[in-house]
Amino acid sequence: MxxxxxxxxxxxxxxxxxxxxxxxxxxxxxxKPTTFVLNTPAYASGVYDLEHSTTLELxxxxxDYGYTASVTYAxxxxxxxxxxxxxxxxxxxxxxKMNVMAxxxxxxxxxxxxxxxxxxxxxPLETALYIRLKASLGKDQYGNVLGEIQSNVVELPHVxxxxxxxxxxxxxxxxxxxxxxxxxxxxxxxxxxxxxxxGTWWRVxxxxxxxxxxxxxxxxxxxxxxxxxxxxxxxxxxxxGDAEGANIKVANSGWYLVIIKGVVEGRNINYTVDIKxxxxxxxxxxxxxxxxxxxxxxxxxxxxxxxGEFVSPAFAAAADAKxxxxxxxxxxxxxxxxxxxxxxxxxxxxxxxGNDQDRITAGAGQKVYLNFSNDTGKIE
Length: 380
Description:
Order of helices and strands: HEEEEEHEEEEEEEEEEEEEEEEEEEE
Number of domains: 3
Largest sheet: 6 strands, mixed
Number of strands: 25
Structural class: mainly beta
CATH architecture of the largest domain: Sandwich
Number of helices: 2
Shape: elongated
CATH topology of the largest domain: Immunoglobulin-like
Strand content: 25-35%
């Protein structure tokens, strides 16, 4: 009986190994495609009006990877057949028949026209567009594209193109990043918008050696460095830079009032950075009822360290609930209240573009202590 059991086991084992060998022989082998044809769209010689169209249908032959593969298609657009300059549309497709969004084509073509130096007022216009596809099998774990192949180029000789880019608008705020916060955007400091002055921001900040600024808290290619803005050093900071786009260097690290103005010119936002002395002032009841701006006797003491506190003079009188304690910095050509702020529950709150702030009362002889590195403060 035992002999029959062993023989049966060996027979089953032989079948198992045979099956494995068979599976190996049938495994698909990836091969590099040699042909990939993009078909000429219907009515290619006619006029394509992108503004009044929804989609453009493209069809192609699926590249031969040696087996039925899941292929991803991307669309490239150029103004010249050699594709020396091109844009890749944001949408991708998984079918050899794809409806390409006309608006995406228009945005890409408009971008390319602007790179050629065509002005916005020249639109709408008629142009030739060249299209090709890129097929791939996705990316590996290292981000490398697998099995990519480009199709032939198809021409659309008569494309009516409107100006498809959205208007350029000023950002809501800006952020400063640099050596002082270890170049970590998540720890960057936000500038404060000036009330009733769109495109103007300010910040009292300790500039340590180098910095850049951006309208986003990320390295997205839009950050501004040396040579990418106009810098007015009105406080002896010693500004320099190694090259355009490099970090803005500060020879004399310390506290400054940094004011940035942005102006939309064409498709660009041109920034002017005004670096001033870090003057912070009391105004109103705590000064004995004086409402003059920038009174020297009511200027805060400036700390020598990045984590130090700005300290006000002792209050000459109590600040009641009607007018309260008032603090401001001076922005040229604006009233003091457009750049005021106050301490609430240990935190500095900036008025910015908001309404009048709540009043904080205090007694004569008290002082304000401000830490602009972490936006904390106190009155005592």
